[in-house]
Each structure stands twice: as structure tokens, then as C-alpha cells.
Amino acid sequence: MRNLTGYWMGMLAAGAVTLAAGCNKDNETGAVTSKANGETSSAPSSDAVEARDHALIRAVNAIPDKSNLTIYAGDSAAFKNVGYKKTTGYEEIPDNLFNFQLKAANAASGEAVAQNRENLHDGGHYTIVALPSEDPNDENLRVLDDDLKPGAETSGKARVRFINGLAGDTDVDLFIKGQKDPLFDGVNFKAEAGWKDVDPASGTLVVRPDNKTTTLATLANQQLEASKSYTFVVVGKPGKYEIVKVEDTVAKDPS
After folding, report:
1. Which regions in the chain score pLDDT beneath 70?
2. Bridge partner list, 173
3. Can you give the pTM of this predicted structure?
4. 151-250: what fold?
């Protein structure tokens, strides 16, 4: 994992007001191992990151028509050339107020197509999700507090959250195929339904329009394992919807 630099100058140039972020004692974790895109990445413990007055961020590109995106924190590029359906590993940045901007790859001087201003807490974990819009020049950028918990604190459950990345007014449900009740019900566009603790399970994940039997997207052969955290994002356009998966294994805080 690389340590990002140059952010303080970017923040000053953007006119950002620097706020002191307090400790986030509720979110203390050990090292985090993440799996996405068939790759594995790791991040240090929250205590180690907090000691450097940093936070951890990663990014997900859920915009079908933008195959490569660059996400800026202030005037510095935090993530470059993030491909569609790709999830980056966590990177460290200072734990203060940032103006995050979304631009097309190699468009440093271009106008941002989306932005979001967030205050990051020291030692915290955050996921930036680039989401589509019906207007390609006015996309959406959400910054989610990952609120990770060590596996030892999940009481034998799997933690799952679900994000609706389908532009428009279609609310969606997430099921495990064959089960009567959905894992998540009626999630609207841009919404992140929050974490849900579920019993370990296996099978095919199915996304449907709310209260309908039509299948929009599936993800086969999934294992929801105890003590692990899973983020699922439904993405795509009519005729080609897909589910993006991010798996996190969170170690216990060593202190």
C-alpha cells in the first residue's frame, strides 16, 4: 500500500477549511485484508493509521460509461485510471476535510463531473463510490464510512451491505436464491442500506426490482462466511446489470 502525499497543498489551493478530526474509538480494527477484482490487498491497523493522523480510503467505479476515472482529494489524484467495476485497495490520506472530485482519466485540468466534501476521522476506513446519473456530465460521488468491525466481534455472523448503483427510480431487492425473504428490501438509487448481520450462507445472489420476480442481476457460487464483511453494488445499464463484490477480513485490534 502506498502512502499518498501532497494533500495539504491541494487542500489549501481548494480553499478547504481544515478541521481537527477526533479519534474514532468505535471503529478500531487490526489489519484489513480485502478481496476484489480477483486481487487481494491489505491495510494496516487503525491504531497505526491513527498514529500518523491519517485515514484510509478506497474507491469503486460503478459508472458503466466511464471505463477509467481519476478521483482527486483536493488537487492531488488519490486514485488514477479506476476501471469500471473495479475496486481499489485502501490508501492513506490525512484525516481532515477534503473536497473529493471525480474526473475522467488524464483530465486534471478539466471540470469535475461529480464532487463530495467529507470530513475524515483518524484511523477510519472509507469507500468512495462513483455512481452514474442520467446526465453524464453530472455524475454522483458518495463517501461511505465503512464502519468495519473485527471478525471476532461479529458473533459468528457475516456482515453484508448493499448499494443500488442503477441510475433511475428503480428500487431493488437483494436475495439469496431459494430464500423467501430478501437480505435487503426496497433499496433506492444511490442508497447504501447499512450493514446487516446474517447467518453464514451459500448460493446465488439475485437482484430484483422491488416486490417483483424479474431478475436484474445474479452472482453465482457465493459464500457468506462468518466473521467476514461483504459489500455488494449492483451496477450497469438495461440489458447488462451486474453485481460487484468486495470482501473484507478484519483482524482484531492488537492493542
Report:
1. 1-27, 105-109
2. 208
3. 0.87
4. Immunoglobulin-like (2.60.40)
